Amino acid sequence: MSPTESIAPISFPEREIDDVRESLMRSGIICTTRVQHEKGLYIKGRQYMTPWGDVVDVVGVTEGKGLDRHPHQALLDDQMRAEIGDHPFDIVYLRIVTAPQVVARSGEHVLQLCVGDCFDWLKARDPGTIGNAVCDPPYGLEFMGKGWDAPWKYGFTEAGVLGAPLPSFTSSRNPMCRTCHKHKRGSVSHVACTCDEPDFDDVEHKVGDLQKFQRWSEEWLALIYKVLVPGGTAKIFGGTRTFHRIGAAMYRVGFQDLHMDAWVYGSGFPKSMNISKAIDKHLGAVQEPTGEVYVKPDGSSPGQGTNSWTDELGDREYQITAPSTDEAKAWEGWGTALKPAWEPILIGRKP
Question: What is the C-alpha separation between 160 and 252, in angstroms, rounded?
């Protein structure tokens, strides 16, 4: 018996099957209602087989009663309203685990696309059954303050309708001064630190976060190590500022012969501070517009590509300014960082 033959089936009304399948493939998670004889039939934590062959997890079950409590009340037709009536019903949240559909075939080799949480998928695999692994995990940089790049803080499980949507958006941490106990950046209701020699705690915070990032990396790397055959290799992409933590994690879970490849490219997302503007700001000087305007399309800012990270659309104009102080003029055109132009790839072998 194959693993899928032992999974209990889940049924849907014939008129809903196409919509349910499309929604699952698009968002990965849906909710469906179960009334009368189907109430209590589906249990949280169990897996079920859909009529079209996908495996789904029941990640939550809540109870409702009355049409006004139905999550899709605006979409119900007369037949559906009559079926539900005043009966209590279960709202069953389903998350797709795997879509056993062949997307490519070459001779005897079949490529199968599986949709789901990699932690769950790897845990369900038998040891020593996969030849090689290639992945591009979060780099632990909290890129633009987004939670999906800080998985040790926010996690990836039970998202969507059951938790915070992914990618989650969080603000970057505001360091606190140990002397005055005020934050580095002020706000409307809070005054920023004004100490002559502030002692911010951001260094220790970043070190602590990197340690958590390494421990989180060890969790999924240990699962990859488990499923690899002896001699199998793992190829893990990383960020230039955090790849050493991934390398350390690979070493700790047992990978040997660690070495590094690199993906080198000509474009990058600049993360540099304009030193000239920073000097004028520090000295309390205001840079005056030169009269020139820089127009960047699609809502992106100078030096960036299309700004799909913030979903802001439309052209945007930026005033070109000139340094005001002699100190700022001396540093015009200088920044604090180079544009990234490569990504390290850590490679390890399971003995």
Answer: 33
